[in-house]
Amino acid sequence: MTQATSSQADILVVGTGIAGLAAALALARQGLRVGLLGPRAPLPAPEADSFDPRVYALSPASRDLLADLGIWDALPAERITGVRRMEILGDRPVWGDRPGRLGLSAWQAGCDHLAWIAESRELERVLRQAVQWSGIRWTTEDFVGLEAGRAADGVTLRTSGGQALRARLAVAADGADSKLREAAGLSAQRSAYGATGVVVHLGAELPHQECACQWFTPNGVLALLPMPDTRDGPQVSMVWSMPAAQAAALLALPEPDRARALETRLAAATGGRLGALRVRSPLFGFPLVLQHCPQLAHRGVVLLGDAAHVVHPLAGQGLNLGLGDVKALAQVLGGREPFRTVDDPRLLRRYERARAEPLLAMRAVTDGLFHLFGAQAAPVAWLRNAGLDLVDRMPLLKRMLVNGASGTGTRA
Ligand SMILES: Cc1cc2nc3c(=O)[nH]c(=O)nc-3n(C[C@H](O)[C@H](O)[C@H](O)COP(=O)(O)OP(=O)(O)OC[C@H]3O[C@@H](n4cnc5c(N)ncnc54)[C@H](O)[C@@H]3O)c2cc1C
């Protein structure tokens, strides 16, 4: 039996991951009464030399949003690494025995950094503190269903603890398997890549020099992201999007065979670019999918973050897209005409229009690259490697790519 709460929020954000926490804060900053619904699992205290396996490459646009929310300066600077260069290496020789290569650097874009690598749990920690200070009411239960029949003045959400929470607008930030999205009747088209993102932190023999490296190998896309040095020396974080069967076989190996097998593969894939690489944390695997929602809002429910879209992690842009949603929704709702309520379908259409182009572009780029580099036919393989080399010699195109990669969006 559910009981109705007396107070009604303008907006109830469902989902307490990074996108949900940032959305709650950004919307509260617009003067809206915001509630938050979702679990608050304890976060382990930060420890020197111990890092969250989940790290994100945050774009300058995401950094700016976090700075506007007062979050950026609260992050522990010693646990964040700036990325000044990116190197993208192909999988086949173009001329002689050298594979295609494309180098991008921050100075080409006239900025300090292309991205920053930050741990998921440190971002969550400071976002949670800010939510607490903002006086946002956080109900630490799960969303379980929408009350049938939408009232004229909003929606009613049922929680796992038997409460009924009312709001003008519900924001679904409850991840790729969003229950709120499903309850609102918003469809999601999902296709599996047949690949798994294997993540682990590695000790490196050579310094990373703030460079993020990515290899398009015949066994998937390998990315090594610069991380803070440890007592044992330089460190990088690995995301290897490998075929699902290969990842399953690797993850099924007992330790220490698993670490040795990965280190051997890394040596072959990187050609010793960072010297010997040693596994220094447990391995995790995430199944990779492409997910797209044709409609982002319907009858008092709006989607953002992974609830709205999931892209291949090869460009490291999933969370950046989610934070882009947060910014757009806050701008649209904060800038509404005084006579419109936050659930006005015209406002929600504005949000959908604002996100249509960035979401389509990111889907096209990540999916296109995945298929281009997945093709094994020799002429395609030669062409894509030659393409990397060619782009490397075109300064204007490179500047556009750098601006795209850093999310600054400016044109050459
Ligand atoms: C291997 C890998 C590497 C990646 N690297 C990058 C990167 O470098 N840069 C980048 O930008 N992105 C990256 N991504 C993508 C990024 O991980 C996601 O886009 C991001 O975590 C999504 O955040 P979110 O808050 O939308 O969703 P989630 O993180 O999934 O959060 C959803 C929240 O909703 C809560 N929830 C779920 N169900 C309910 C319910 N019924 N009621 C209430 N709450 C609920 C959950 O507890 C959780 O807190 C990567 C992804 C993978 C797989």
UniProtKB/TrEMBL annotation:
GO terms for biological process: ubiquinone biosynthetic process. The keyword Cell membrane does not apply. Pathway: Cofactor biosynthesis; ubiquinone biosynthesis. It comes from the Bacteria. PROSITE patterns: UBIH (PS01304). InterPro entries: FAD-bd, FAD/NAD-bd_sf, Ubi_Hdrlase_CS, UbiH/COQ6, UbiH/COQ6_monooxygenase. Residues 9-356 form the FAD-binding domain. Keywords: FAD, Flavoprotein, Monooxygenase, Oxidoreductase. The keyword Signal does not apply. GO terms for molecular function: FAD binding; monooxygenase activity; oxidoreductase activity, acting on paired donors, with incorporation or reduction of molecular oxygen. Its cofactor is FAD. Belongs to the UbiH/COQ6 family. This is 2-octaprenyl-3-methyl-6-methoxy-1,4-benzoquinol hydroxylase.
